[in-house]
Fold each of these.
Amino acid sequence: MKTYRVGIIGLGRMGSTIDDEGHAVKPYSIAACCEVIDQLELVAGSDLQADKRAAFTRRWGVGAVYEDYLEMVAQESLDLVAVCTTASGLFKPANEAPDVNFRGDSHADLTVSLANAGVPMLYVEKAMASSITRADEILKAVKANGTVFNTGVLRRFNESYHAVRRAIAEGEIGEPKAAIHYAASSLMHGHIHSIDTLSFLLGDPKIEAVCGELLPRDFAIENNHIAFDPRATFQLRFENGIESWSVPAGGWEFEVIGTKGCIRSINNGDGIKLRKAGDMVGKRQGWDDAEIAPVEPKSHVVSCLEDLIDAYEQGRPTLGHVEVAHHITEACIAVAESHRRGSSWVNLPLEERDLYIFHV
Ligand SMILES: NC(=O)c1ccc[n+]([C@@H]2O[C@H](COP(=O)([O-])OP(=O)(O)OC[C@H]3O[C@@H](n4cnc5c(N)ncnc54)[C@H](O)[C@@H]3O)[C@@H](O)[C@H]2O)c1
């Protein structure tokens, strides 16, 4: 069994400490996941803040810590690098761009640089870029270098959502017609997950057009720049005719309605409700509750990293490969573009690619 050397950039919550927060499925941080995946050896970390580097060394026994990630890459012969910085590159609690010229885009900067430096496997936190122009750069660099790539849209790697996707693909609800996401959410931090999950559940058909609205409704986008991560709602039209909506209430649930039933992922992935058309003869027109096999919980981050390793070894695309991640990022930013155009439908690919949206 070949083992792979891992370095983490950004030694905060996602890189190192998020398991302390009481989330249901563990391990969660990249460092904790390396401890349970035999093929991964955590050998180095990089953070701009000295206290984060020291805490990482204490916690994981990794002495090779660097202020400059490029020095880490040069010194450590890394097979896999996890980009776990904030998207803006600013330290928390910064949650707004300091001025209209600020276009900090740490995930995009690091991903392009790491791909061009020849790191073979990358885990990149979401959203992968803050504008479509920067996402285009990532697409180009990752493809040119043959980098094996996944991002942190982790419902895509969660067994429970896999079970929903499988049931839909196996025809349990007939032909899917509509898909709905339930939760109030910010655009780049939250809806990158909701759009990705809707796409994943439907088998990743292309999104043809997007319609959306930002809050506050009278917010005017100026200078191709949104200085904060706005609340948003959206509609998507997929190429196979399926329509999709985001409802700004509820607790991160997803429902797909088909011609012969519907399936709903409930309580943020904790359970699944399936309803199917039974024997309609002499009955009301309705669907009955149906059995679906229980799902064994597993860390979605472990599954994501295992997918990276397997894709690398087998020479196959990852589940969250760069084309799909780029497309979802474009659809997410298109929600704001639609808002700018009075919430009219906008077709993908977008012509305007420079709109910058700040997020954490
Ligand atoms: N997918 C998920 O479930 C999930 C969960 C938590 C966080 N996240 C994402 O992970 C990212 C990080 O979030 P967090 O909560 O861990 O943030 P955090 O502030 O706890 O950690 C980020 C760290 O990155 C460091 N950093 C910033 N720029 C750097 C650079 N150029 N080089 C080295 N270090 C640098 C900072 O000093 C900080 O310590 C965010 O994009 C967030 O959305 C995803």
Amino acid sequence: MAEGMRPVEIVSFSRAIDRSGFSCGKPDLDAWLKQHAGHQERSNNTRTFLAVDPQSDGVLGYYATTTYRLELGEVARLHGSPRRRYPIPAVLLARLAVDERSAGRGVGRQLLVHALRGFVTASAQVGFEMVVVHAFDVDAVTFYTTHGFTPFADNPMHLFLTTKELRATFDGL
Ligand SMILES: CC(C)(COP(=O)(O)OP(=O)(O)OC[C@H]1O[C@@H](n2cnc3c(N)ncnc32)[C@H](O)[C@@H]1OP(=O)(O)O)[C@@H](O)C(=O)NCCC(=O)NCCS
């Protein structure tokens, strides 16, 4: 595995940036970036951000975000009571992946921090109660719990961070 921190630039999705060589070890996440990210961006369905190294071509990592809401059943389980009468508005960190050649060098953390800072900014304009992530596997669950997320009781592959926690961590940073 490569050694040392790899500082990256994180930029909004652009078709001009070559995605063809991206390989994170999870074919579904690779294919989504190559085949679907552009269309989803144009249709305003998701926003994708790319980690790039200005010195070299290609994408080192990416994340994608969209809106989300927890339905009443999920809400009741989350709060341990059926008292909530309305779904919870949330945002979803739908995908986050790092090219295997840059793994273990802090690119994933830089992408996550960038995403969370963006959510702090968004939360000043649009109300939502939490950030939800869908982890791809148990390794990804560890990645997210390391960074403050809590697994849902009924589905530990889905995790959340409340907007209150988010703002307490990132506001003013
Ligand atoms: C999970 C993933 C995004 C991590 O990216 P990365 O750039 O290798 O991670 P970083 O180097 O930024 O590591 C940040 C921290 O998370 C931890 N971490 C990273 N990958 C981890 C893993 N697979 N399991 C447990 N912890 C992990 C690191 O130990 C580090 O913590 P430390 O600084 O306390 O040592 C990357 O391995 C990946 O793309 N995996 C395939 C796709 C995937 O599973 N995506 C996740 C959600 S869909």
